[in-house]
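Hi L.,

You mentioned the student needs an example of a multi-chain input paired with its predicted structure. This one should do, with 439 residues in total across all chains.
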Amino acid sequence: MIPDNAEELQILAGEYVLGVLDPDRAREIEAALPHHAELGRAVAFWQERLQPLTALARPVEPPPGLWEQIERRLAAPAAPSGAGLWRSLALWRAAAAAALVVAAALALYIAVAPPPAGPSYVAVLHAPQQAQPAFVATGGRSGLLLRAVAEAAPPGDRGFELWAIAPGAKPQSLGIVPADGRIELGRLPLALGQGTVLAISIEPKTGSPTGQPTGPVVFSGTLLPAR
Amino acid sequence: MLPLRRFSAAPMDISSGSMHGGAQHRPPMDQKLAALASLDELLLAVQRGSRAALKRLYELESRRLYGIALRITRRSDLAADALQDAFIQVWQNARSFAPERGSAAAWLTGILRFRALDALRKLGRETPSDDPTLGDRAEEPDIAAALDLEAAGRALRRCLEALEEKQRRCIILAFVDGLSHAEIAQRLPAPLGSVKSWVRRGLLSLRSCLEP
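Structure written out for the whole complex:
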């Protein structure tokens, strides 16, 4: 998916920043960004160096009331029971504690779970640039198990859809994530391997109409071999 | 809830008149540096959850960003949606801003451009302008005038001028006007394969020219 070759990586990052990639490929890059430091640096390089060209667009006053609309959107959906600084502080404390518990549970799971046939892999899915895990996935030749490890729900009329993205391949849907955040699959449409990215995007409740992610990727993680 | 309400109920003391009018009378370089330093600081404050810092960012950057969105989408409704989505994303993803990697201005531009391109793609990209004053896109924008304002711009101009003309036009049409490979091919006109390879080779040359 993301080239190893340094020159190809630079070109891909440049094409991404220019905006010429097709939407599927662009979304793939977006999903990989939080986990791929070199890609992140390459994208930042192009954004920074091409930035002066934006002076070619003349500044224009946005329509009145736009900030108020932004404020209303920020106030509304995220936390229905009264968002505020104190609430988010408490949330963060809880999240930090939960992360410790999850790390311990994951270590225990890896230590005591019966070894599945063939190599097995683990991925921790989290929001971009956030340490707090939201889902944990374990899998191998015998299937895949995804479980929620934090409260996460899609906005109102939308659903979460799970995708597996093998290196160099297009995203493959692994299904809609049910409300309990648990997916257990016996047969997979692809072979899981090291470097396969699992990603969860926001889609219509019945799943992406195109068979490819259409909404933003909200959680993602890379499969690593469990030893 | 209360602290947030207090911030928004007390408008900050920057009427658009004093901000934009006053700026032009000061030495441009000082003004520019001061503005950039404070954008970074504001974004770091947004990371810590300050809604007031987000509002200040909007006040400082919305004209520039809306102008870019308008240039790409050619439609005021799409540009307004893109600007709105971009600020929601800035609030939600502020933590992904890393000052050691690049400036706040470039980070904001990146988010805005992707939201503007998204808005276009949802409509199948080729959309007629709804604003008669926008007219036809400039085929060859005045790069020199726009880039000579600051050192980074001069470096970019030097490197762009070193490219073959077709490579340069492809890169500018993509970045400034938000055109896809196929749209550039139609615009020039040129075969799609050639456009893809001009973009690739242009990026490679730019990269080696710009690298410190």
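You could point out the following to them. Chain A has five helices and nine strands. Chain A touches chain B through 50 residues (CB under 8 Å).

Best wishes,
N.
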